[in-house]
Design goal:
- The chain has about 725 residues and is an alpha+beta fold.
- It is about 35% helix and about 25% strand.
- It folds into 5 domains: about 130 residues, 3-Layer(aba) Sandwich (Rossmann fold), CATH 3.40.50.140; about 150 residues, Topoisomerase I, domain 2 (Orthogonal Bundle); about 130 residues, Topoisomerase I, domain 3, CATH 2.70.20.10; about 130 residues, Topoisomerase I, domain 4; about 40 residues.
- Strands 9, 10, 11, 12, 15, 16 and 17 form a 7-stranded antiparallel β-sheet that branches.
- Helix 6 packs antiparallel against helix 17.
């Protein structure tokens, strides 16, 4: 009864507000609504009456100057804001529009950045004192959401603004201070950052793990068996009795094979059952970026650009400009009651009652979340991808379809697998065989993850029992070696950053874009590789600014920014506590850090044009040879550093080379006549077992022939060199 009364009260309240809006409209009052982009303005313009004028600020209108730090250290780190170049004419127009309006609504995005844009507009347009203003936000650009936001208008949230100011000031202090040091110690054009430097370190650390990884040998053993019907299947070796046994080498494998000679195979146990695979959660920014990368081969920056278009609105045939998805910068799995009910009704109608999950699943986040916005979802679940396909570009359609399928799947029943597990004895040894097949698709009828496990469908074991007679066919013994950690991809780097609390949904894509554009990292076939330049920058950062590139420190800083947003910590307190330590490290680095040697070093290579000795220069892609007679002589050549090792194929010198994108490798100086190449640094020592060349792996020498597996310690003099 109480619930019903409350609901009625809220309904009356909302109706009253709507009536107030309609009444205001009839009075002939004029309202100005300011958003960030023209696309968003076009979408909103459809939902509001003629007395509402919609204009776009084209993003930020004020910022700290690029030519200087822009922070007043003498007056408690007060930021110095100026009008962004090129925005003067736009602001002039907006001032006229604001003056002509009876009220101004600031409708920028519902996050820290959007709140800050509204605050800057407030000051740049001299609003507030002269003109009544209100802040409105909506998680999705739909008629209902926009009109509701008008009735729920509020003041600017200064806690959100201060959180953005804190991040901006911290990033400016770190970026400008460290970048200045890198310019002096390495070369102009380099940069360091509070988040980007940590991301670079993660990639460098992973590269180090890969380089030093030493494969370990292991073997697998399978027994191919035939049943009475002539069907052949393979059982996998489990161990001795019920004890799991790993086969480390050929000798151990042969010992098992000897124990299995002339032994009969018999079924000892058959278990059947079922297992469920729970539906996937709707997208957050991070998971959307990861799945778009895996499913669509879409870079994080491109994913966010396309998603922004879908959020702000696209021209849909028969509907006009429509916002297709909810707000795209979020770390929450939460969805509104309205969206949940609409999804349930759609699934029931389209797929049937059996596919509707009777429970409302609450997906829990693993790390810290702000939970300020809903998960990413379609604004109207009944607007199926096929309906809007003709109105969207190829990429817009693919991403919208991915978001739509993911959301619908998140409200559906789990998939159910029918499983069979069989134990087979061979003397004192145990073999196993397992099979599973989908009994009920559930959510997988709509959405299957890119890395989804393939269902085993062994038709034999579904009918096998203890009385089944087995006929041995042959053994399948195979040698394997453990694999190094995988190189980061954009998707896996985003996942790691999220898990470690580094950055926020809005920063993942810009961070990755920055380290690639700075040529610290190269991207080849989805994988991210650190370049020579990236290694130099990372080394300096670790040496001079260990706290900046410390994962835990960066995550703690993100937590403090969340506290600012929650109103529990003052933003200048965060900066006051951070800056003295940074200044101390910078001052120490200026005195103690040695300049990276990138001066023009003369070589024995003679310029083909003028006969001078060419020198080593340092460019965006690393080192290269150039004629010292520049600008009269502009001859350049690739620079290949000799490592003092003869080519295993032709006997000429092995040199250090780089791919077009900056990834290091070792190749023959006589390329293309000799095609020798190695990602690991080769040694002049030969493998005593198979005769192949050895490669360096940390403090070990490892045979380059994977099937050999020979390892020995590196000589001490080699390590020192």
């Amino acid at each position: 009864m109480a619930k019903t009364a409350t609901a009625e009260k809220e309904a009356k309240k909302t109706t009253k507000k709507k009536a107030t809006v309609k009444k205001a409209a009839k009075t002939g009052k004029k309202y100005l609504v300011i958003v960030e982009s023209p696309a968003k303005a076009a979408t909103i313009g459809k939902f509001l009456g003629n007395n509402y004028k919609i204009e776009a600020s084209m993003g930020h209108v004020r910022d700290m100057p690029k030519s200087q730090m822009g922070i007043d250290f003498e007056h408690d780190f007060e930021p110095k804001y100026i009008t962004i170049r090129g925005k003067g004419e736009l602001l002039g127009k907006l001032r006229k529009d604001a003056k002509a309006a009876d009220k101004v609504y600031l409708a920028t995005d519902p996050d820290r950045e959007g709140e800050a844009i509204s605050w800057h507009l407030l000051h740049a347009l001299n609003l507030g004192e002269e003109k009544p203003i209100s802040r409105i936000t909506f998680n999705e650009i739909t008629k209902t959401a926009v009109k509701k936001s008008i009735t729920e208008a509020r003041d600017i949230d200064m806690d959100l603004v201060d959180a953005q100011q804190a991040r901006r000031v911290l990033d400016r202090v770190v970026g400008y201070t460290i970048s200045d040091l890198l310019w002096k110690k390495v070369k102009k054009g380099l940069s360091g950052g509070r988040v980007q430097s940590v991301a670079l370190r993660l990639i460098c650390d992973r590269e180090g793990e890969i380089r030093e990884f030493i494969p370990e040998e292991y073997w697998t053993l399978g027994a191919k068996l035939k049943d009475a019907d002539g069907k052949v299947f393979e059982a996998k070796f489990y161990g001795k009795g019920e004890t799991k046994t790993e086969l480390a080498n050929e000798a151990e494998t042969n010992e098992v094979l000897d124990g299995l000679k002339d032994k009969d195979f018999a079924v000892t146990d058959v278990k059947t059952g079922s297992r469920q695979k729970k539906p996937v959660a709707p997208f957050t920014t991070s998971t959307m970026q990861q799945e778009a990368s895996k499913h669509l081969n879409m870079a994080t920056q491109k994913t966010m650009m396309i998603a922004q278009q879908l959020y702000e609105g696209v021209n849909v045939k028969g509907e006009g400009t429509v916002g297709l998805v909810s707000y795209i910068r979020t770390d929450s799995f939460r969805i509104s009651d309205e969206a949940y009910e609409a999804a349930v009704a759609f699934i029931k109608e389209t797929y049937g009652d059996a596919f509707v999950n009777p429970e409302r699943i609450v997906y829990k986040s693993k790390g810290k979340t702000q939970d300020a916005h809903e998960a990413i979802r379609p604004t109207d679940v009944s607007r199926m991808p096929a309906i809007v396909k003709e109105s969207l570009s190829r990429d817009q359609f693919r991403l919208y379809q991915l978001i739509w399928k993911r959301f619908v799947a998140s409200r559906m029943q789990p998939a159910v697998y029918e499983t069979t597990s069989v134990k087979i004895s061979g003397g004192e040894y145990l073999f196993t065989v397992a099979a599973s097949k989908i009994k009920f698709d559930g959510f997988m009828s709509v959405y299957v993850q890119a890395d989804e496990e393939k269902a085993q469908n062994n038709t034999l074991v579904r009918s096998i029992d203890k009385d089944t007679v087995l006929d041995f066919q042959e053994f399948d013994e195979q040698q394997h070696f453990t694999q190094p950690p995988a190189h980061y991809t954009e998707a896996s780097l985003v996942k790691t950053m999220e898990e470690l609390g580094i950055g926020r949904p809005s920063t993942y894509a810009p961070t990755i874009t920055t380290i690639i554009s700075r040529r610290y990292v190269s991207k080849e076939q989805r994988n991210l590789y650190v370049t020579e330049l990236g290694e130099v920058v990372n080394s300096i950062m670790k040496q001079a600014f260990p706290s900046i590139v410390d994962v835990n420190f960066t995550a703690t800083m993100e937590g403090l920014l969340d506290c600012v947003e929650n109103g529990t910590v003052q933003w200048k307190t965060v900066v006051r506590n951070f800056y003295p330590d940074l200044k101390h490290d910078v001052d120490a680095a200026q005195e103690e850090l040695e300049k990276v040697d990138i001066h023009d070093e003369e070589t024995d290579v003679i310029c083909d044009n003028c006969g001078r000795h060419m020198v080593i220069k340092y460019g965006p892609h690393g080192r290269f040879l150039a004629c010292p007679g520049f600008p009269e002589c502009r001859n350049t050549k690739p620079y290949y550093e000799k490592i003092g090792v003869a080519c295993p194929k032709c006997g000429k010198e092995v040199v250090l080379k780089k791919t077009k994108k900056g990834r290091k490798y070792y190749g023959c100086e006589d390329n293309p006549e000799c095609d020798f190449m190695s990602w690991q640094k080769p040694s002049d020592k030969k493998c005593p077992v198979c005769g192949s060349y050895m490669v360096e792996k940390g403090n070990k020498l490892v045979c380059s022939q994977e099937t050999c597996g020979y390892v020995e310690a590196r000589p001490k003099d080699e390590k020192e060199n």
